[in-house]
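Sequence design from tokenized structure. All designs in this work follow the same two-part layout: the structure record, then the generated sequence. An example of the structure record is given first.
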């Protein structure tokens, strides 16, 4: 399959083909299937984000003992791993500087 350039915002969970559509942090080159997989990761991250928001109102559970927070962290790391794999050289260097994949 043919790869196309995409502009990705992890913060807003968006993947755009047009650079000027919205703010973005990273550039990738991906097939349609790879973009779909990344979108699914963003949706999974959003689910964990909602679950962890609900948990925040129950302070008896510490962050490091919370399944929703653990899931969020795992999925976020997988998102950055995927972006690193698909990223331009500048994107790869940026993610490496974050040290999130260690």
């Amino acid at each position: 399959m043919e790869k196309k350039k995409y502009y990705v915002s992890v913060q807003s969970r968006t993947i755009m083909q047009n650079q000027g559509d919205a703010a973005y942090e990273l550039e990738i080159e991906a097939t349609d299937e790879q973009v779909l997989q990344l979108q699914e990761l963003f949706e999974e991250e959003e689910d964990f984000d909602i679950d962890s928001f609900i948990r925040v109102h129950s302070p008896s559970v510490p962050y490091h003992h919370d399944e929703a927070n653990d899931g969020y962290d795992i999925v976020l790391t997988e998102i950055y791993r995927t972006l690193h794999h698909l990223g331009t050289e500048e994107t790869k260097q940026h993610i490496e500087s974050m040290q999130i994949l260690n």
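The helical segments are 32-55, 67-86, 89-98. We note this feature because it recurs in several other targets discussed in the main text.
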